[in-house]
């Protein structure tokens, strides 16, 4: 969670690229100084919404895992990177050194087969953290074992470690890798013996050592409420956030400044316009120095009258205080196959697709600009499923799209001008 992040015309084939990564808190090549460069919002025209409606379309991770298409990607520098996922029923990884024009296979030291263990609530098991061009960590659960595999030479050699969990039914749900040799991994219990239990592990020594961490005060394994949906993100080896939603609809932040030895907890309330709304989903935060931004989904009403609302939360002081912005423009928006309404390359710069067009924010989600791009909008009509999107820099970005059947994908890239998109050669 970390979470490094995913993403011709003659052949819209099975090519997948995602720059931000999936589940890893590593990625975009944007420095802190660049986050203060906020261009004018009048550089892109807001025009009539394109047809047809229904863009972005719904995505099923289970279908992607069985359709033999690549749907995860991370390119840390925009040129070299990795794509991964289940192909022909087995978890596989490939590497590119030319922006996705060609790919070669990477040895995966542990076999994961598609099936009941490969997905949980729209999140994939295992998860890959791309730390840099050559350093990868693979975290997953296989049977009773919590598996960690690491490589520092692009997959030529791996170190593999296993920890017996004492029961099956656990799944990896969130990963953050703030350093080469240290990571934080959340597991969720799904079997009758451990259903609703959340485990948090601190992984050190390149995966050789794991320590179970107590976050909350409750008697469950991690101290978190039962059946909590949770994500974890660390900005460095000491400072990290763990965010949860509960069955009662409460959104909570657990924060540490000493590497997880002590945690403080606070409840994050929805904006006053929807006060009393229930939180139903929280997504991976993007952290940089003392700033952090993340999306959460709330619901109001019940039954057929219920309505979902997207709220973007942001902090400028390491999570001590927050502001929450109700963002109706993101109702129905998607930025990856997990259904995240928007992804952030930095805590300031966010991107999403809604109503068949690209949306961009340069102020941590306070406002969103519709970027008119005829080329992108034509591709979205043919490939309405958004699997991954992100920017390596403010001017270089990628987007991975799939057709409605999720059996064919196209990787698009833009450089220099954000309103011009073309397939990767």
TrEMBL record:
Lineage: superkingdom: Bacteria
Signal peptide feature range: 1-24
Keywords for the protein's UniProt record, in alphabetical order: Signal
Protein name: Uncharacterized protein
């Amino acid at each position: 969670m970390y979470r490094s992040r995913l993403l011709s015309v003659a052949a819209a084939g099975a090519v997948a690229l995602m720059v931000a990564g999936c589940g890893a808190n590593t990625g975009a090549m944007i420095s802190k100084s660049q986050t203060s460069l906020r261009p004018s919002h009048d550089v892109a025209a807001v025009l009539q919404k394109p047809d047809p409606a229904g863009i972005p379309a719904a995505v099923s991770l289970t279908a992607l895992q069985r359709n033999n298409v690549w749907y995860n990607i991370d390119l840390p520098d925009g040129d070299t990177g990795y794509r991964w996922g289940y192909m022909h029923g087995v978890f596989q990884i490939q590497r590119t050194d030319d922006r996705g024009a060609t790919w070669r296979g990477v040895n995966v030291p542990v076999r994961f087969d598609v099936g009941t263990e490969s997905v949980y609530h729209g999140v994939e098991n295992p998860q890959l953290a791309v730390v840099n061009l050559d350093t990868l960590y693979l975290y997953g659960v296989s049977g009773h074992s919590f598996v960690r595999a690491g490589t520092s030479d692009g997959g030529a050699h791996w170190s593999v470690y296993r920890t017996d969990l004492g029961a099956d039914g656990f799944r990896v749900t969130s990963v953050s890798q703030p350093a080469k040799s240290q990571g934080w991994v959340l597991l969720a219990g799904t079997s009758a013996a451990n259903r609703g239990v959340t485990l948090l592990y601190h992984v050190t020594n390149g995966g050789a050592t794991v320590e179970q961490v107590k976050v909350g005060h409750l008697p469950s394994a991690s101290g978190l409420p039962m059946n909590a949906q949770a994500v974890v993100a660390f900005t460095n080896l000491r400072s990290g956030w763990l965010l949860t939603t509960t069955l009662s609809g409460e959104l909570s932040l657990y924060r540490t400044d000493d590497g997880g030895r002590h945690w403080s907890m606070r409840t994050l309330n929805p904006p006053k316009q929807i006060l009393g709304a229930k939180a139903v989903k929280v997504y991976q935060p993007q952290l940089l120095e003392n700033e952090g931004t993340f999306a959460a989904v709330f619901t109001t009403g019940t039954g057929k009258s219920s309505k979902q609302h997207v709220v973007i939360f942001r902090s400028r002081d390491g999570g001590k205080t927050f502001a929450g912005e109700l963002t109706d423009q993101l109702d129905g928006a998607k930025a990856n196959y997990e259904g995240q309404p928007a992804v952030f390359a930095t805590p300031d710069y966010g991107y999403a697709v809604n109503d068949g067009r690209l949306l961009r924010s340069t102020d941590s989600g306070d406002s969103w600009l519709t970027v008119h791009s005829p080329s992108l909008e034509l591709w979205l009509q043919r490939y309405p499923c958004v699997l991954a999107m992100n920017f390596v820099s403010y001017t270089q970005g990628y987007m991975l799209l799939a057709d409605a059947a999720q059996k064919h994908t196209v990787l698009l890239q833009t450089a220099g001008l954000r309103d011009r998109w073309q397939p990767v050669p």
